[in-house]
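Action item from last meeting closed. Structure (408 res):
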């Protein structure tokens, strides 16, 4: 019998299509000596038979994921810094041209986008529940509210600041299971001619690339143009534009407005037509995806075992949140990966969630190159390859697993 739950968007029936097993919190990097019990949950995903929204079957309490010591920094990548600076300048040149424009960012992290907004003198508020990164944003001159964004938050901002011309969110909106409250807040806070713009991993790219490690506790929803259009309609909003992005392994940027406020671009109808042709949430499509995930697991573990049995070394590159899924689902531990190098100081000296692989600095990786490096931060491959040319020049080889297992 199929496992089902109730859709967070339309209350329809969500049918599970993949179970990635018992998983830890993806960003819970522990000290090696810690004896505190780890939190685990069942990571499984389903698709709604009604609105087609793809979503997790079980919710992890938000306070466990987003807290004072949350380690992810949006500005940690030069590519992402440039991405957000470019988006800020684009908003300043288009939607924020009024006499006293106001922008609200849901999940501003360390303020990488709002720094540019703040420097221009435009009124803004970044809403960020993770205290440590919120403090970093504030230290850069960003106005930050340490809070989760929901209807009450939006109404409070509306009361003190007035309507927002832009509400923006990057890699955050998909994290929020209580989306009904958030959408009510957005509808109340958004100016009559304003835009809600958000970008998140695109389920169509996850299917195409078999990038199952995009699935972890923080990603509750996996959007498509079809499901976002339906979500918007049910909330009194309207999807008027979609834009593909190369960031984070494939994303879409969605633009929503109050229903009827703007004419939808041709890109919306074109993207929905493509999704209908691809049948992204059809049982056969989802079954092929699951088979691909299982094949990657088998081939990746077999490859790592062959290397180990030859007496050669493998080091992981990038202690990403998404790596928790692949390491725990595949059962990859310190016996197969000597350590994982990562440039985030807050992760160094700790061990990965669940599998407890040591995390060390890139300097230690460069001190004595291994024969192989498993590219866990595959969504930053171009930036990493440019930085680590000496590894390949020394004879090192990269192991990838998206879209399939390969050694180069």
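Sequence:
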């Amino acid at each position: 019998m199929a496992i089902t739950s109730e859709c967070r968007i339309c209350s329809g029936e969500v049918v599970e299509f993949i179970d990635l097993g018992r998983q830890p919190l993806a960003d819970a990097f522990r000290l090696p000596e810690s004896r505190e019990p780890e939190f685990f949950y069942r990571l499984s995903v389903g698709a709604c038979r009604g609105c087609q929204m793809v979503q997790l079957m079980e919710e992890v309490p938000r306070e466990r994921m987003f807290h004072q010591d949350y380690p992810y920094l949006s500005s940690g990548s030069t590519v992402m810094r440039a991405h957000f600076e470019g988006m800020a300048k684009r908003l300043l040149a288009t939607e924020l041209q009024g006499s006293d424009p106001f922008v609200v960012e849901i999940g501003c992290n360390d303020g990488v986008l709002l720094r540019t907004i703040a420097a221009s003198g435009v009124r803004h508020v970044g809403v960020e529940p993770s205290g440590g990164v919120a403090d970093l944003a504030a230290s850069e001159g960003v106005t930050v509210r340490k809070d989760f964004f929901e209807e009450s938050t939006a109404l409070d901002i509306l009361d003190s600041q007035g309507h927002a011309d832009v509400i923006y969110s990057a890699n955050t909106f998909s994290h929020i299971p209580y989306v009904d409250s958030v959408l009510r807040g957005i509808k109340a806070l958004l100016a009559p001619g304003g835009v809600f713009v958000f970008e998140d991993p695109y389920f169509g790219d996850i299917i195409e690339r078999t990038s199952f490690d995009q699935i972890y506790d923080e990603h509750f929803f996996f959007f498509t143009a079809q499901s976002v259009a339906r979500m918007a309609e049910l909330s009194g909003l309207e999807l008027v534009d979609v834009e593909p992005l190369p960031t984070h392994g494939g994303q879409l940027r969605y633009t929503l407005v109050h229903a009827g406020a703007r004419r939808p671009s041709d890109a919306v109808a074109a993207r929905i037509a493509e999704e209908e042709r691809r049948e992204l949430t059809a049982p056969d499509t989802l079954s092929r995806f699951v088979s691909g995930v299982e094949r990657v697991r088998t081939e990746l573990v077999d490859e790592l075992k062959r290397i180990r049995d030859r007496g050669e070394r493998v080091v992981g590159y990038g202690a990403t949140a998404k790596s928790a899924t692949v390491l725990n689902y595949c059962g990859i531990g310190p016996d197969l990966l000597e350590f994982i190098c990562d440039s985030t100081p807050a992760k160094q000296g700790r061990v990965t969630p669940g599998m407890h692989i040591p995390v060390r600095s890139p300097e230690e990786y460069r001190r004595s190159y291994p024969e192989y490096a498993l590219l866990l931060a595959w969504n930053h491959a171009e930036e990493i390859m440019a930085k680590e040319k000496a590894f390949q020049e020394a004879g090192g080889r990269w192991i990838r697993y998206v879209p399939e297992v390969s050694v180069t």
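Note appended to the action item: The chain has a mean pLDDT of 93.
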